[in-house]
Amino acid sequence: MKYKYPLLPLLFTAISFLAHAQPSPEEEEPVYTFQVIGWNRTHLDMFYLEEGGPRTLRLIQRTPSPPQHIAGTEKIQFYIPVETEEGSRPYLLTEATLYPPPARNLIVIWLNQNRKYQSVVLKDDPDTPAPGKLRLVNLSGHELRLKANDDPIISMHPGAIEIITPKNEGVGLKIAILKTPNSGWKLGLLNAITVRKNDRVTAFIADPSKIAPTLEETATNAQTDTSPLTLFVIKNRAK
Do 219 and 161 have their domain in common? Predict the structure, then answer.
């Protein structure tokens, strides 16, 4: 191809070189979104660290916190201040790994039987679980067999998640548990959960012997739950 102006090819080459040579804008750090909710603690003031310093956050039983945003890291640690002879020091409660944006994260925090805090992270997007669905999470540490309404029996390994479709806005649950290979299957739980069409419901299946009693149970000397399994249910109304 012949150019009417001989310098044009050199000019185009120079422009192309400069365009590629310009430093690209610094990539923005990903911003993670999360909420926390307490399982068996009524109120607990804690904090986490972000670029601007510590940020306080109240953990409330059965009530999600306002949405929080943290940039740059998928790892997050929660602390409480503890008084020592040298003064106040941060004490690590628990840490969690967040799902990357654009996912919204729900961090469930509880006190275990050894008086140590534990946590689990679930996706909490508008379709996870979808409105009108029940999400079951096996946190019992045991093998389970689950029958929901008249559906076929489902095997749930420790940590497994199942999505259940209600019938007539309800889910009847019958769960069997295998605590040890030689113990055989035993009935662990009979329950029913209401799931309305606009509700997003998550239920955690847990071994009550691994969960510390609530403060109310401790204060009133309530009898410890001796049943093999228990449920912790979170209901959110779809917007």
Answer: yes
